[in-house]
Amino acid sequence: MTETQTTPPMPFDDELLTRLRQSQHLVVFTGAGVSRESGIPTFRDALTGLWSQYEPEDLAMPDAFVRDPSLVWGWYEWRRALVARCEPNPAHLTIAALANRVPKLTLITQNVDGLHARAGSPDVLELHGSLERPRCFDCGTHCPPDAPMATDDQQRIEPPTCVQCGGFIRPGVVWFGEALPVDVWHRAKRAAQACDLMLSVGTSGLVYPAASLPKEAVFQQIPVVQINPEPTALDETMWHNLHGEAGVVLPSLLKSAWPDF
Ligand code: BJW
Ligand code: ZN
Q: Which residue ranges does the record assign to the Deacetylase sirtuin-type domain (predicted)?
């Protein structure tokens, strides 16, 4: 089932282009790789990834926040400041424009950086929350985000406190061991089961339950096309693996499907 294409040059498979043009409900499922060309590190890159200096369990778990709130809050403020300096790249922009070419597009992202929305994509299903929706760790009250206050060196910063209960404010993201937002998850799962084509872009496919979405589509015999410069845990189950950077492959793919794109 798996077919591999190397880019560039990119003469894409005719059946793939036809499926894309005829799609009535396309799902685009994205991960950190889609924001890499905007200058935001991925998580698992050994040298430059967000976790290259820390273990994930030191930063992306509730226990880590309880143990050292200032370390965790400072790390997220550093990331928020980085994201504020970055712009959507051709991958985000192409996905936003694609919504005008197909009758229905559901965009599901694991990213918390908000770059899809900034590129013009409406109704993004954010499986892992958002850097811009902080809330109280204790009572859940939402707290409007301030401008990010971090410097470049990922210093510790004491989190603000909740106006309701005095608890620490935490980032509005989904950490390991936490449930995904229920409504978002159900909508994503339904789309993965009901679409007629899925593009899985820039994710290692290692984190569950998000990584079950492309597998769910494959289980329903829906073709899934992966775009990633590196092999991933999902390679074997894909209909096509397009090896290359999202900001290069996606515009090229869509230009091949619609020459006026
Ligand atoms: C490019 C590119 C370019 C580079 N173009 N591509 C089943 C089996 C085993 C374990 C589990 C399981 N089910 C659940 C678990 C546990 C756990 C889990 O999955 N662990 C695994 C590590 C094994 N999952 C959870 O804990 C989840 N919760 C849960 O299951 O709750 C159960 C529950 C139910 C009911 C009540 C209570 C609990 C929650 C998972 C939350 C994940 N959160 C994070 C952090 C978010 C906040 C933050 O940003 O800090 O989400 S972890 C991190 O990984 C982040 C990402 O969204 C996520 C996925 O990473 P992603 O996007 O794939 O990035 P990378 O870095 O891994 O890959 C980047 C890719 O891009 C690479 O492939 C590159 O090659 C590629 N690339 N340049 C295209 N230019
Ligand atoms: Zn509170």
A: 7-261
> Which atom number of ligand 1 is nearest to the Cα of residue 44?
66
Tokens encoding 166: 């005095």
pLDDT at 102 over 90: yes
* Catalytic, out of 128, 142, 186, 243: 128
What the block records as the tokens of 225 is 């096309």
pLDDT at 19: 98
Residue 140 to residue 155: CA distance in whole angstroms: 25
Mean per-residue pLDDT of the chain: 93
Find the ligand nearest to 139 CA.
2
The CATH superfamily holding the domain 41-85+130-173 is: SIR2/SIRT2 'Small Domain' (3.30.1600.10)
Residue 116: active-site member? no
- 2, 17, 6, 5: which is closest to 253 by C-alpha? 17
